[in-house]
Write a structure and sequence with these properties.
By secondary structure, the chain is α/β, with parallel strands linked by helices. The chain contains 12 helices and 7 strands. The chain has 2 domains: 227 residues, Spore Coat Polysaccharide Biosynthesis Protein SpsA, Chain A; 119 residues. It is elongated and about 75 Å long. The protein starts with 19 loop residues before the first strand and ends in a 5-residue tail after the last helix.
Length: 375
């Protein structure tokens, strides 16, 4: 194996191109970016590298910080996304925006150990692996100072990913990996872009064809900013697992939409019971209130979870609710019409009702995706 060429000066672009691109998704990481470039510079001596910070329009001015740095260091650039959110899609777009032979993904919070990047690159460059994964669970790795609840959550997510996708890896939830360009190109069209665990998406899409090298590392504490792991991120992870399992048959968003609709039915009957049975209100009035509450519940939860990347805020939240209500009204009419038609045709009443519900659900999902939560 020939010796790697020397590092290009910081103020000059590499004459023969970059060998490695670091894709680093950011949101409110302005305080971490300068330090991130500094530690990469120290760790990647002798490697022609560039860093693409993919920023989702951070309010703290992260994109502006990266732009300012790029004026003196052409290895640093920003992909500024407006109106789009999501770690997985940020990683995909960042990788597509580069031309390097090798692409690495890592967080901007300095929790990933950049000093193991040369070892990960060597493993992939040698041909021993298509992708090198930084793992916290192999011998020599560590999760750092995680509390018990977060460690248990990670262990559960790892177990679920093994069972649902069949990916056998000590740390499939890792957000720190390096892969060959050809390997990325071979799976990119099958990636769902859902959630925040792009590695799991890549490996599941590779269907066991990608050779993996596991590189242990010590997970660090966050230096600045806030963790992006929250309940919504966990829901995104759930949708990713669904997509990898049945995504070709049923869209993961539809599964989410349907589950929330099921919760809405529970809310509907709870409100109806309280008003009609416990408070003695008229049935028609109670039914109308229950339906309205359930509809607002469904809209609000879908806005936060199912369409997190297209979330409506402020005045647009109100206009979205109006359009959602109008769509659901048509869906309800279709539901009743189809169910009644089948019942009149001597179809068993349960099957008639289910057919009406399914038609209404598909209508509500398809039309609201186009109008209420259009891209």
């Amino acid at each position: 194996m020939s010796e790697a060429p020397s590092l290009a000066p910081a103020a000059m672009p590499a004459a023969d191109g970059y060998e490695l691109t670091l894709v680093i998704p950011t949101f409110n990481e302005s305080l971490n970016v300068p330090r991130m470039v500094e530690v990469l510079d120290a760790a990647l001596t002798g490697i022609r590298w560039e860093a693409i910070f993919v920023d989702d329009d951070s309010p703290d001015g992260t994109a502006e910080v990266v732009r300012a740095m790029s004026q003196t260091d052409p290895r640093v650039r920003v992909l500024h996304r407006i109106g789009r959110r999501g770690l997985s899609t940020a990683c995909i777009e960042g990788a597509l925006a580069s031309s390097s032979e090798f692409v690495a993904v890592m967080d901007a919070d300095l929790q990933h150990d950049e000093t193991v990047l040369p070892q990960m690159l060597a493993a992939v460059r040698s041909g021993a692996a298509d992708i090198a994964v930084g793992t916290r669970y192999a011998k020599g790795g560590s999760i750092g100072e995680w509390n018990q609840s977060r460690a248990q959550m990670s262990a559960l997510a790892t177990w679920l990913s093994h069972k649902v996708t069949g990916v056998q890896l000590s740390d499939p939830m890792s957000g720190f990996f390096l892969m060959r360009r050809e390997a990325f190109n071979s799976v990119v069209r099958d990636l769902s872009g859902l959630g925040f665990k792009i590695l799991l998406d890549i490996l599941a899409s590779g269907r066991g064809k990608l050779k993996v090298h596991e590189q242990p590392y010590q997970f660090r504490n966050r230096v600045a900013g806030e963790s992006k792991l929250d309940t919504q991120a966990l829901w995104d992870f759930f949708l990713l697992l669904i997509d990898k399992r049945i995504g070709k048959l049923v869209p993961a968003r539809f599964v989410s939409f349907g589950l929330i609709g099921g919760f809405g039915v529970v809310i509907h009957f709870a409100v109806l019971t309280v008003l009609f049975q416990l408070m003695g209100q008229g049935f028609a009035w109670s039914q109308a209130i229950a339906a309205s509450v359930a509809m607002v519940f469904n809209y609000s939860l879908n806005n936060v979870l199912t369409y997190r990347d297209r979330r409506r805020k402020g005045f647009r939240w109100i206009t979205g609710l109006i359009s959602f209500a109008a769509i659901c009204a048509v869906g309800m009419a279709a539901n009743v019409g189809v169910a009644n038609y089948l019942f009149v045709q001597q179809t068993f009443w349960v099957f008639s009702a289910l057919a009406g519900i399914l038609l209404g659900a598909v209508w509500n999902y398809a039309v609201s995706a186009v109008y209420t939560w259009r891209k």
